[in-house]
UniProtKB/TrEMBL annotation:
This is Secreted protein. It comes from the Bacteria. InterPro entries: Asn_synthase (IPR001962), Ntn_hydrolases_N (IPR029055). GO terms for biological process: asparagine biosynthetic process. One of its GO terms (molecular function) is asparagine synthase (glutamine-hydrolyzing) activity. The lineage of its organism: Bacteria, Bacillati, Actinomycetota, Actinomycetes, Kitasatosporales. It comes from Streptomyces lincolnensis.
């Protein structure tokens, strides 16, 4: 894990600062473990973890005006200086408009500004501390700093309504640690905090001006090319070159690298056969910059990009995608590697692993991804996020009705009709879209809160059922049916409390709002996956989640998005504009059946270990579930009953995360007593605690 952490204190209550940090209550000096001080008193900032030298840049205008950029940023030092001067005058958007994926921190006197990203892949957290505010790009260091306990209401919301931002609001799994929303910045002035948005959102009252589809797609192409070029222009790294123990009898350099679990030097990409990963692989291989192996290492060619394809031997169904991947890999600028995986790479196959900052569903598939990434390069492109930034959420049909663009509903509704075979589909879809367009946000949350209290969990069937279920402001999560009544009541109270906040409402159209929420959840899942499946010295790159790419994708007209096959068509146009025209037949065809089959097979193979996991689960001690109910559901899912597999994955991943959190004995800070870590007392039986918290909130 890599993060930055710092704090801002009031002038009157500022902690006494030593040479390496603040002096705590017992006279000890506090500073993060494994940290590098970027600047010191009175508002220090550290970079923590295995940052590369080129990933941390600090540009100063004077002693009290400076900017730190951590991550991959395509801006020059002069552009950083211009952005610093703009931020000094209050213009924050300039700090988020450079190619790449990074976090920018600006200090102007005693004012500190920390910018989050638009997708949520690089979040910012904060907590009150020592008369001021501590902030970080990870929640766990702040939880250790204040010895935070678990926020059981937040954990309940993750299971009951994971796609509804109002349920989790700004909370985290740690009580007292807060998160700023995507598209916002944290501004600290001598300890006092303010959260300011730097991005405009679509208005509910006035329709956005209609964008030209061709120019919008061109903007997506330009943003993607710049995102890829920012990675290609960064310095290359040879993994573990300074720690190679030297020759080993019977082992060459490649075997020694594989034995240490290190990636190949240079740049590579996933090549699954799908349109997102294929687009990035072809762009990276075609742009100038010699994206292959580092000169003087490996083959010495320096121009071939390592393309990695995962072939699941335990579950079939992806033969067509594998064939397309092989056709794409025939490009002479690609070096194709196929990684095979059997039952040992199925979901749920590995329940041990590193502790991540937060829980996410990707914890149950980490071993599957690690097997693929272990064969990858030091800098590895992935297509994560493409579906969320390019596809149309079904709720966007309501946005089209609000803008009086009914004719654009014809093709998507016709596609659903063909999939279902019923002549009633158009009327059902149109009726659901019209109801959503006429339903206020407050009413939508009240309906969802009532559904949770009444335990009404309808199973959507097929593509039409899923689309109809998505045509709401929010719906119960797939794991909600297995939660206790107290946990559901807590989430219901959270939703009702959201309707009483000042300025209730997202300020956006329902489809745009639901799409942004889905993007945030996907970005969070990728962030956790990066930590859970981390390969030493490797960097995962997800250009589709870069700020500039997200912005460009948001300019795509909704009428273009909702058309069947829009994502593949957009990416095909992007590649054609970049000079890549020869794509295999069937490129861009969707494939989801194999993922569900792998989850079902993994559940069956790992049934015994999952039963042991939920023998005396921490989730039950926290009052969120009843152990026997979950064991029954796992047994039924393993036997092939039609249950929401995503819900079971949510339960298992949260239980795994809780067990890893409580098993740790260290802390993110030196100079603190041994007790200074998150959840110091563990989980005590919480039966009734959730209901008590809900009652307190009502009062």
């Amino acid at each position: 894990m890599r993060w930055l952490v710092g704090w801002s204190s009031t002038a009157a209550g500022a902690p006494e600062i030593g040479s390496a940090g603040a002096v705590g209550h017992d006279g000890e000096t506090l500073h993060p473990v494994g940290s590098h001080l970027l600047w010191g008193d009175p508002d220090p900032l550290w970079a923590v973890g295995d940052w590369r030298p080129d990933e941390v840049r600090v540009v100063k205008a004077d002693a009290q005006t400076r900017i730190a950029v951590l991550g991959i940023c395509g801006a020059t030092d002069e552009q950083l200086r211009v952005g610093l001067f703009a931020a000094r005058g209050g213009a924050l958007r300039h700090l988020t408009a450079w190619p790449g994926s990074y976090t920018a921190v600006v200090q102007v006197g005693r004012r500190i500004t920390v910018c989050g990203d638009l997708a949520g892949a690089r979040p910012v957290f904060y907590t009150p501390w020592s008369g001021g505010t501590a902030y970080a790009t990870a929640a766990l260091p702040l939880a250790d700093l204040i010895e935070a306990n678990l926020d059981y209401g937040h954990l309940a919301a993750l299971l009951a309504a994971p796609d509804v931002p109002a349920a989790v609001y700004d909370s985290t799994p740690y009580d007292g640690v807060r998160r700023i929303p995507p598209g916002h910045a944290l501004i600290l002035r001598a300890g006092a905090r303010e959260i300011a948005g730097y991005e405009q959102v679509a208005s509910l009252a006035v329709a956005a001006p209609s964008a030209d589809p061709d120019s919008a797609v061109d903007a997506v192409r330009d943003a993607l090319v710049e995102a890829v070029r920012a990675r290609l222009s960064a310095p290359r790294h040879v993994p573990g070159a300074d720690i190679d123990p030297g020759p080993v009898p019977g082992m060459g350099p490649a075997e020694r690298r594989a034995a240490r679990g290190m990636p190949v030097a240079g740049i590579g990409a996933d090549l699954s056969g799908g349109p997102a990963s294929g687009t990035l692989a072809l762009l990276a291989a075609g742009l100038p910059g010699m994206p292959g192996t580092v000169l003087g290492h490996g083959t010495g060619a320096g121009e071939r990009l390592l393309a990695v394809t995962f072939n699941d031997l335990a579950v079939g169904g992806r033969e067509a995608e594998l064939e397309r991947a092989g056709t794409l890999a025939a490009n002479p600028r690609l070096h194709h590697v196929v990684v095979t995986g059997g039952e040992e790479t199925l979901p749920y196959s590995e329940l041990d692993g590193p502790l991540t900052d937060e829980p996410a569903q990707s914890l149950v598939t980490a071993a599957r991804h690690r097997a693929r990434l272990a064969a990858g390069s030091a800098d590895h492109f992935t297509g994560y996020g493409a579906r969320q930034v390019l596809d149309a959420h079904p709720a966007r049909l309501a946005d089209l009705l609000m803008d009086r663009k009914r004719r654009h509903l014809v093709r998507p509704v016709a596609a659903l009709t063909r999939a279902d075979g019923s002549v009633l589909v158009p009327a059902r879809v149109y009726g659901a879209a019209r109801r959503l367009a006429r339903t206020p946000y407050r009413t939508g949350l009240e309906v969802l809160a009532d559904r949770l209290m009444q335990r009404r969990f309808d199973d959507p069937g097929g593509a039409v059922g899923a689309s109809l279920a998505a045509l709401t402001w929010g719906r119960p999560g797939p794991a909600a049916r297995w939660l206790t009544g107290e946990a559901l009541a807590e989430v219901s109270v959270r939703l009702q409390g959201a309707t009483h906040r000042s300025g209730v409402g997202p300020g956006q159209r329902p489809g745009d709002f639901r799409a942004r929420a889905a993007l945030t959840r996907s970005a969070t899942d990728l962030r956790v996956l990066d930590q859970a499946a981390e390969i030493r010295f490797q960097r995962l790159h997800a250009p589709f989640l870069d700020n500039q790419v997200v912005r460009a994708c948001r300019t795509l007209p909704e009428a273009l998005r909702v058309q069947p096959g829009a994502r593949a068509a957009i990416l095909r146009t992007v590649l054609e504009g970049a000079g890549v025209a020869d794509l295999p037949p069937g490129w861009g065809a969707p494939s989801h059946a194999s993922s569900a089959a792998a989850a079902r097979t993994g559940l069956r193979v790992a049934a015994d270990s999952l039963m042991a996991l939920f023998g005396n689960p921490l989730l039950a001690q926290a009052g969120l579930v009843e152990a026997r109910v979950v064991r029954k559901a796992l047994r039924a899912g393993a036997e092939g009953e039609a249950l929401p597999l995503d819900g079971l994955a949510d339960l298992v991943s949260l239980e795994i995360w809780l067990q890893r959190l409580l098993a740790r004995r260290g802390t993110c800070w030196t100079g603190t007593p041994a007790r200074a870590r998150a959840v110091p007392a563990g989980i005590t039986p919480q039966r009734g605690a959730l209901g008590a918290g809900a009652a307190a909130r009502r009062a």
